[in-house]
Specification:
The protein is an alpha/beta fold. It has 2 domains: about 190 residues, Alpha-Beta Complex (Quinone Oxidoreductase, Chain A, domain 1), CATH 3.90.180; about 130 residues, NAD(P)-binding Rossmann-like Domain (Rossmann fold, 3-Layer(aba) Sandwich), CATH 3.40.50. Helix content is about 25%, strand content about 25%. It is built from 11 helices and 17 strands. Strand 11, helix 6 and strand 12 form a beta-alpha-beta unit.
Length: about 350
């Protein structure tokens, strides 16, 4: 076993603290990654509070991981020592169901995915521990190649926020001539703006906060609509081909569905605490659709990383010491971050 250091939540709703544990040995198909940076996702907060249930504690969060490979198994084909690599939200799946065979492992139909943290390793039965740690052992099939051309700290959030927004844009073939609305300008929303704009779409940020307009335009948005302003909202009725909804707070979907053109689609990425209510007429009247999307498969995540390297797209971040992780959660709840906290894991040794 490999000794490892991390920060972990000892139990639900208990602040994170230093934690020593053991990783499995590097198997024939595994790589060992010395973690350099790990993004702080809002789902980390949900899980350490056990708001989604079935949490495994102690819990080491973190699924936006980048670092350098320091060891490879004897049968590893696609990586070598010294490569920069990334790990996203999953480290395994059944590998044999139709979704896995289609490269859509995130929708694994047999066992479900093995989460990078909060899951159970299939071979050992031990809990998986995430990226708020100094190293991680991952099967090469669930490991991503990361370009050294980009700032690694700013690449880390691409492994969740990036692929979560890239996948639906690709699934619905968003490109030139499309009008895309982005609801919410946070970790997910700011990536949706950058990616949709890079794909050639006209991008409008839909926000309750007028003071975010300058930031939205700087990120690449072409238009900005203050949704609390009835006249501004009216100006984009029946306007959008797609709306990327990143909001996890309760809201009235009807007002936003009316912004879709005929055959328009709202894609849900956020998870509100209560199920939204929608009157069927809001859909029927314009043959509109509501859809959902979950992260992306391994091949598509690699495609996203390559696309971002080609177009020089990275996340806007604030780097933090790991000792400040609990404070960062409080700031995240207040929206006091542009747009993603990223932990510098070198600070784990301080």
């Amino acid at each position: 076993m490999l000794p490892a250091k991390a920060y972990a939540a000892p139990a639900a709703n208990v602040p994170l603290a230093p934690f020593d544990f053991e990783r499995r040995e590097v198997g024939p198909h595994d790589v060992l990654i010395d973690i350099q940076f790990c993004g702080v996702c809002h789902s980390d907060l949900h899980q350490i509070r056990d708001e989604w249930g079935a949490g495994i504690f102690p819990m080491v969060p973190g699924h936006e991981i980048v670092g350098r490979i320091t060891k490879v198994g004897d049968h590893v084909k696609n990586f070598k020592v010294g490569d920069i690599a990334g790990v996203g939200c999953m480290v395994d799946s059944c590998r044999t169901c139709p979704s896995c065979l289609d490269g859509l492992e995130q929708y694994c139909e047999t066992t479900g995915i093995v989460g990078t943290y909060g899951g159970t390793e299939k071979e050992t039965g031990r809990p998986t521990y995430g990226g708020y740690s100094n190293q991680i052992v991952v099967d090469e099939k669930y490991t991503l190649k990361v370009s050294e051309k980009l700032d690694l700290a700013r690449v880390a959030p691409l492994l969740c926020a990036g692929i979560t927004t890239y996948s639906p844009l690709r699934q619905w073939k968003v490109g030139p001539g499309h009008r895309v609305g982005v609801m919410g300008l946070g970790g997910l929303g700011h990536m949706a703006v950058k990616l949709a704009a890079a794909m050639g779409a006209e991008v409008t940020v839909l926000s309750t906060s007028p003071n975010k307009e300058a930031d939205a335009k700087e990120l690449g948005a072409h238009k900005f609509v203050v949704t609390r302003d009835k006249e501004q909202l009216k100006s984009v009725r029946n306007y959008f081909d797609f709306i990327i909804n990143t909001v996890s707070a309760p809201l009235d979907l009807a007002a936003y569905l009316n912004l879709l053109r005929r055959d328009g689609t709202m894609i849900l990425l956020g998870v509100p605490p209560e199920a939204p209510q929608v009157h069927a007429f809001n859909l029927i009247a314009r043959r509109r659709r509501i859809a959902g999307s979950l992260i992306g498969g391994i091949a598509e995540t690699q495609e996203m990383l390559d696309f971002c390297a080609e177009h020089n797209i990275v996340s806007d971040i604030e780097i933090i010491d790991i000792k400040d992780i609990n404070e960062s959660y409080e700031r995240m709840l207040k929206g006091d971050v542009k747009y993603r906290f990223v932990i510098d894991l070198a600070t784990l040794n301080n």
